[in-house]
Automatic annotation (TrEMBL):
InterPro entries: AAA+_ATPase, ABC_transporter-like_ATP-bd, ABC_transporter-like_CS, ACT-like_dom_sf, MetN_ABC, MetN_ABC_transporter-like, NIL_domain, P-loop_NTPase. The keyword Transit peptide does not apply. PANTHER family: AMINO ACID IMPORT ATP-BINDING PROTEIN, METHIONINE IMPORT ATP-BINDING PROTEIN METN. PROSITE patterns: ABC_TRANSPORTER_1, ABC_TRANSPORTER_2. Keywords: Amino-acid transport, ATP-binding, Cell membrane, Membrane, Nucleotide-binding, Translocase, Transport. The keyword Plastid does not apply. It comes from the Bacteria. It comes from Serinibacter arcticus. One of its GO terms (biological process) is amino acid transport. This is Methionine ABC transporter ATP-binding protein. One of its GO terms (molecular function) is ATP hydrolysis activity. SUPFAM superfamilies: ACT-like, P-loop containing nucleoside triphosphate hydrolases. SMART domains: AAA (SM00382), NIL (SM00930).
Amino acid sequence: MGEAVISLRGVSKEFPGRHAAVRAVDDVDLDVFEGEIFGVIGYSGAGKSTLVRLINALERSTAGTITVAGTEITSLSERALRPVRAGIGMIFQQFNLFASRTVAGNIAYPLKVAGVPKAQRAARVAELLDFVGLSDKAKVYPNKLSGGQKQRVGIARALATSPRILLADESTSALDPETTADVLGLLRRVNAELGITIVVITHEMDVVRALCHRIAVMERGKVVEVGEAYQVFAAPKHPATARFVGASLHDVPTPAVLERLRRRHPGRLVMLRMQSDGGAGGYLTRSLREHAVEGTIIYGGISEISERPFGSLTLEITGEPGAVAGFVDHVVTSAGATDLGTVDAPLALPLHAAERAAATEDGERA
Ligand SMILES: Nc1ncnc2c1ncn2[C@@H]1O[C@H](COP(=O)(O)OP(=O)(O)OP(=O)(O)O)[C@@H](O)[C@H]1O
């Protein structure tokens, strides 16, 4: 991993509220490393946008220090911030293109502001149009473009001044799934081919799945969990993370579903976590055979993060009672499985699984 290109220490941002101040970002410590794609996730109002706006000083912090590419920016004047901002590109959910300028004009704009001579501007614009695959749209106005094409222009414009960092605030939230995949593919190229560090804000699991190396989970202004995307999602430590995973994966039965499953399946129920090495299948088959019990999958969900499977399966285990107890003991101790008991002796979901199920319930209600 490279060195930290963005560092936050004890950073807070308060906005004056009608009654009391709103602390949108609350005492955050964070490092984003050179060359990574870093995700900031959390529900609406968690403080994600404010956090990212602090990084390019669109908002000024009320406490703490922020270092971007080696420069401590919190005490800089607007004038001194200019070169720092030139090293940070930004793209937005609503694209924020100038309707009155052509595609080429939009991309050239930051170069014009930076005082780049006209001939050089034209050459750079052509290069960027080629990179984002829109060479044939140079003279077109944004209102003639699809959402995905608009975001490509947004990306080209953000890259015009060759920044080291790209900030993407919900950059695919206004796009359909296919176009999203397209734009995410382009962002991956920006990272891999140009070596640009990317910070993405998102509430969408698909974006994290397709893009992020590491993530920070935010709740009420605080970063409550940070780490490698797979580690954080496969074994969430904070309820906010568990809810986020549950809302997209729907792998843990809600209490109502569990109740129905219990009535329909009188055997012992056990929930198995998918292992990061993808070995759950083999492990499960072997353990069932060794204990001479039968297992039927009755609920679950498996997906991928960073190309590794994660999720959980709920099984009904049947067989001779001693053998069933032996099997359940074995998977609980050696694989972190959850014993859910039987219809007559039910056992509750552990806290993080219950949070995951609750998010599924919210999703169903929404
Ligand atoms: N300019 C502002 N003035 C007052 N309060 C603000 C301002 N900007 C943000 N807030 C408040 O700060 C908190 C965090 O908002 P922020 O937009 O950073 O969250 P978010 O996680 O990005 O949410 P969303 O995804 O809905 O944009 C919210 O309570 C919001 O109302």
